[in-house]
Structure formats: structure tokens, C-alpha cells
Amino acid sequence: MSLALTLARPYARAAFALARQSGALPGWSAALSVSAQLAADPRIAGLVAHPALDRAEAAGLVAPPSCDAVFLQFLDVLASNDRLALLPEIAGQYEQLRAEAERVVRAKVTSATPLSGDEQSKIEQALRRRFNADVALETAVDPALIGGAVIDAGDVVIDGSLRSKLARLETALTH
């Protein structure tokens, strides 16, 4: 596990606890997403890391326009510990914690061609049965797959792509 992910873990847990206490899980998701995007911007990251910048000013640079006081305090803690650069990792881990708490499996389906609404629905239903949880489905297209699809649902990856099948066939024929 990378150092950034390890350092981000306690902050993500703290953010999740604060959001849960205030009943604002979706609001914190949105605020963390905006802050993470801002912190990942190289121009803003350079400013935030500048030693002449006050920590409160640094936190203000990555704060979403309409965030609450508790979120601002959270950013202030990150700034005072020189951890604003971890916001992308914190946001990602926060979303994992939220998905677990809400019993939602986040799955990404990458297919060779765009999926129809019916195909998406069938995949979503199958994943819902498999994980016994709600499913948040994200789709992407990668023509390099040639055909079929790859489903990535956290720890579970189902590779039904034609590219993968051809690679397995090639390995079987050459050994």
C-alpha cells in the first residue's frame, strides 16, 4: 500500500465520522470531491505548498464555495498537518467508507462498444444478486477490448473481454 493511502486513512475515517454525525454524507462527498480536484491541480498544489502561505489561507484555496464550518475546520486540520495534498486519497477512501455504510457496491464496466440501457440494467441486476447490495454502475468504452467487457467491482474483477480470451488461448497454444 502506498504511503499516501496509509497517511490518508485516518483523515478519511475522521471525515466520514464527522459527516455521519451531522447526517451529511452526500454533502461531504461533494465537498471532498471539489477539494480533491482543487488540491490535485498543479497550480493550486504549488500555492498550497508555498511556505509563505498561511495554513488557513491554504485551506481556503481548496475549500468549496458553499461548505459548512465543520468541513472548513477539517481542511484547517489538514493544512496545519501539511496534508492538503492527500485530499484525492482522502476523498477516495471516504467514498469507500460511505459505500460500505450505505451497502452500495461501486462497479465500473468497461466494454468494447457502448452498452445499451438494457445491457446496463442486466449487468446491474446480476451484480446486485451477486453482492446482495445496491450497485452504482459506471460505464466506460475501450475499443482495445475487441469485444465483451471487464467488470471491476472493488476486490472482484470479471474479465469477459475478447482480448483476454485471445490472450489465454495464445498462452495455452504456446505452452
- Rounded to an integer, what's the Rg over CA atoms? 20 Å
Tell me the major beta sheet: 4 strands, mixed
Question: What is the helix content?
Answer: 55-70%
Average pLDDT confidence is: 91
Q: Please provide the count of β strands.
A: 4
Rough outline: elongated
Query: Strand fraction band?
Result: 5-15%
Helix tally? 8
Question: Unreliable runs, pLDDT <50, ≥5 residues?
Answer: none
How far apart are the first and last residues' alpha carbons, in Å?
34 Å
Class of secondary structure makeup: alpha+beta
Biggest sheet, spatial arrangement of strands: 2-1-3-4
Q: What is the chain-wise order of helices and strands?
A: HHHHHHEHEEEH
Structure description:
- With 175 residues, this protein is of the alpha+beta class.
- 60% of the residues lie in helices and 14% in strands.
- The protein has helices at residues 3-21, 25-40, 42-48, 55-62, 69-80, 87-101, 117-131, 162-174, and strands at 104-111, 134-141, 149-153, 156-159.
- The chain is elongated, with a radius of gyration of 20 Å.
Task: Record the SSE blueprint.
Layout (H helix, E strand, L loop, with lengths): L2 H19 L3 H16 L1 H7 L6 H8 L6 H12 L6 H15 L2 E8 L5 H15 L2 E8 L7 E5 L2 E4 L2 H13 L1
Parallel strand pairs: 1-2
Antiparallel strand pairs: 1-3, 3-4
